[in-house]
Structure of BED zinc finger:
Amino acid sequence: MRHAVWEHFEEIEPRTSSKTHPKAKCNYCNEQVRGQPKRFLIPHLLKKCLQAPPSVKQQLQGPQIQRSSLTPTTPASEEASDVELESEVATEGLELVIQSPQPQGLRSQTQLQRLELMRLKTNVAKYRAKAMEAEFMAEKLAVWIKLKDLGVPDDEIERSLPSL
């Protein structure tokens, strides 16, 4: 079932696959937003849309938001793994860069924060990969030492372990 926030948006582009999300147009300001209720639709109405009525904002701020039983959708559109979320953040940031005809100095603070978040997440991923590689190397060396202590000849160790 679709989230109740969809009452304030018109779907302008449906999902093209299970990995994409629909595009929506705000009924109040006509801004196009990615059709994810919790990540984009609700924040749009609460923080960005100046034309949204106060009653709508109050309704969305309360815990009483329910899914409407009128329009079905796949539950996968509401949930995403960490990898999908990180990918989504990166994609959103790239969209901001591509769609923004403004010079670097005129980008909004939100856009700059999103780009910085993408840079930080990229660095975290690089360091995680390096840490995993170092851990793998340490384990290989430990195995090498253990086999050497057991008297296994070097040439046999080299054949059985990938090259260091």
Remarks:
- The first strand starts at residue 9 and ends at 13.
- Residues 64-86 have pLDDT under 50 and may be disordered.
- The first helix runs from residue 37 to 48.
- The helical segments are 37-48, 54-61, 82-99, 109-149, 154-160.
